[in-house]
Amino acid sequence: MREWFVLGALGLAGLGALALQQQAAEVVVQTSEHQGYGQYLTDAQGRSLYLFTNDSKNTSNCYDQCAQNWPPLLVKDKPVAGKGVAASLLGTTQRRNDTLQATYNGWPLYYFARDQKAGDTNGQGVGGVWFLVSPYGVAIKPPQPSPAATPATPEPMVAAAQNPELMRAGEAAFKANCAMCHGEQGRGNPALAENRKLQDADFVIRQVLRGSRYMPAFGDRLSDREIAAIITFIRNSWGNNYGTVTEGMVKTRR
Q1: How far apart are CA 247 and CA 191, in angstroms?
Q2: Could you list the pLDDT tens digit for every one of the 254 residues in the chain?
Q3: Range of 171's domain?
Q4: Where does a domain end: 114, 132, 150?
């Protein structure tokens, strides 16, 4: 316990100085890459940023001792979007002492006092309520095992060229929901261009519906048709030619 407070005090000293610098200068939020967690939010110095699942939208519930262990990312104005970050998701929320805290997708952002240097992720998963933040603005959590399902009856693959409307819809939905990480030309991280894994329609549908450690689930935010359109688009763009995924295929795999 004593070691915790010593380490916390050391971390807080560094973070306190950093907070003063931030209030005097422009604050940049960007992404870094972790071998286990994929892309996650950091400040301009590469220090990890976290969200607290007990917070409410645009409202911090972390004060007093909590805020000593999890110092808020304080700003004077709206933070600036760095590499891999969507400017539209950045914002601020006012704390009880009238300071401004940076938010991303409505989540107030924090440091962890035991992170001593850039790249440290010691706060990930603490208490089951503190998590690194993905570029989509959601908590990065370990993937949950999916319930066993009855194998769906395969549907015949239809050439995407016969579905130009679906391809156009898929391109628009991809740019709105996926291009931030995968890149508009499919060469982001992870790359989709010339990706043989896209041959497996079941695998791709499951990934989009349920998510994984590296990406959020879209099953609760996109319709069957929107998901079918996105998957059809990525399976038939940038050197891929793997046929159409139908709305029915998505529906039976939910």
Answers
A1: 24
A2: 444 433 444 444 555 545 544 554 789 999 999 888 889 999 999 999 999 999 999 999 999 999 999 999 999 999 999 999 999 999 999 999 999 999 999 999 999 999 999 999 999 999 889 999 999 899 998 765 555 554 544 444 445 545 788 888 888 888 888 887 888 898 887 889 888 889 898 999 998 998 876 678 888 888 999 999 999 999 999 998 888 888 889 988 88
A3: 160-252
A4: 132
Overall domain count for the chain: 2
| pTM exceeds 0.85 | no
- 234 and 189 in one domain? yes
Length of the chain: 254
**Shared-domain flag, residues 6 and 82:** yes
Say if residue 203 is in the same domain as residue 106: no
